[in-house]
Amino acid sequence: MARMPALFLSHGAPPLVDDARWVSQLRDLAAGLPRPRAILMASAHWESAPLMLGATEPAPLVYDFGGFERKYYEVTYPAPGAPELATRVEGLMPDTERVARTNRGLDHGAYVPLTVMYPDADIPVLQMSLPTLEPDALLEIGRRLAPLRDEGVLIIGSGFTTHGLPFLRDWRPDAAAPGWSREFDAWAAEALARGAVDELAAFRDRAPGMPYAHPTIEHFAPMFLTLGASDDPERAPEQPIDGFWMGLAKRSFQVA
């Protein structure tokens, strides 16, 4: 069984599927990966402690957004559940880390990119919550999950490299990126290229463009789950997707 990489995706709002460039990038990324046996997804849109595992059988999607066209509320993604993967995740966590299950379906941070990458919805998907937003704790959770990669599981942290929604003034998909978004993205790209995990973890104090790039930090936090699942978090990951959407940095990466 091929060993899977781990991904950090800037996941996009529901209209991502109407952006031809971004759709092409996500499809190319998926086409270059071994086919997963299952997918473990951690999205910025589910913070819950203790660590929670979503529906292990198909459940209705969570349309956790407002103000969009009706068609975005009619999307379905009936991927198989992944009860065996849930049991495996439970077994990888320490005795001190309580894990619970819920019937919560996939939220848009999980299903929107998957509708592009694996449109047939024929790969089992399990979503897990972010039990914390602290980088060091998420790196440790990622390290515990890393053995799943040898079992054909694609681990995805889904967030957004910049997410300063309150500070956007131009909501067109091709809007020029604000200075804070460009500066933060350039800093993140350079830090990733050096494998500077400690610097990335200190982004609240060290990154230019803060706090505008992340007035709340849940969209940057999933990155650390992905980095923790790397063989060597200080090895520079591939960065196959960059650029901006509505001025927000959609930089995404994969680790070996």
From TrEMBL:
Keyword Zinc among record annotations: yes
Keyword Transmembrane helix: no
InterPro entries assigned: Extradiol_dOase_DODA, Xdiol_dOase_suB
One MF term in the entry's GO annotations: dioxygenase activity
Source species, domain of life: Bacteria
Keywords in alphabetical order: Dioxygenase, Metal-binding, Oxidoreductase, Zinc
Cofactor requirements of the protein: Zn(2+)
Span of domain Extradiol ring-cleavage dioxygenase class III enzyme subunit B: 26-232
Pfam families: LigB
Family statement: Belongs to the DODA-type extradiol aromatic ring-opening dioxygenase family.
Protein name as annotated: Dioxygenase
Species the sequence originates in: Paractinoplanes deccanensis
